[in-house]
Design brief:
2 strands, single chain, two-stranded antiparallel ribbon, mainly alpha, 3% strand
């Protein structure tokens, strides 16, 4: 009797994050970056709490519309790639390619840099040399000025640290740290025996 053919499962997206953890992640990102880092600028420019709340309400409506749109696109195109996949299916590979590069340079990099600079600026309340206004080197003038100082170096170091953490993974990084501590201890023990 012949054996029935076995079904080979198609590779799919890993569902590692649940609804509540995804919701908490999005809310913490919005509150941390959007509210804590920009409210002071909004208060300075608008001067009214009612206008700030109105701007947040309009922003919430836009965010809800975007979330519903992306959820519908994700259901209709269930493959990894996000905007690249959606625009490639809708308008062709040229638009998918362009949105990939725009997302790389502006959509993902700029918010990461802004969050790191905001962290550095908040840290500047404890260490004043890290404040953005205390940058030691200023190139250019006006809106086209580039400030370089301890705050920018701290922000860059934070981005580099999280990049290493992301590349290695938390478990692997801690094993590297553990191994480096062991190597350092063995080296110091060897040096001590040599003297």
């Amino acid at each position: 009797m012949p054996t029935p053919p076995t079904q080979i499962s198609r590779p799919g997206l890993l569902r590692q994050i649940g609804f509540f953890s995804a919701t908490a992640l999005v809310i913490s990102n919005m509150v941390g970056t959007g509210i804590f880092a920009t409210t002071g600028f909004m208060a300075g420019d608008l001067g009214s709490a009612q206008l700030i709340l109105a701007c947040w309400a309009v922003g919430a409506l836009f965010a809800l519309a975007g979330a519903l749109t992306y959820s519908e696109l994700g259901i209709n195109f269930p493959s990894s790639g996000g905007e690249y996949v959606y625009l490639t299916h809708a308008f062709g590979p040229e638009w998918g390619f362009m949105t990939g590069w725009v997302s790389f340079f502006a959509g993902f990099s700029a918010p990461i840099a802004a969050a790191a600079l905001a962290f550095s600026d908040y840290l500047g309340y404890f260490f004043p040399s890290l404040k953005q206004v205390n940058a030691t080197l200023v190139v250019g003038s006006g809106a086209f000025s580039l400030h370089l100082g301890a705050g920018q170096i701290t922000a860059s170091a934070l981005i580099a640290a999280f990049t290493v953490l992301n590349c290695l993974g938390v478990g692997r990084l801690f094993s590297v740290i553990r191994d480096s501590r062991l190597s350092t201890a063995l080296y110091l023990l060897h040096k001590q025996r040599g003297h």
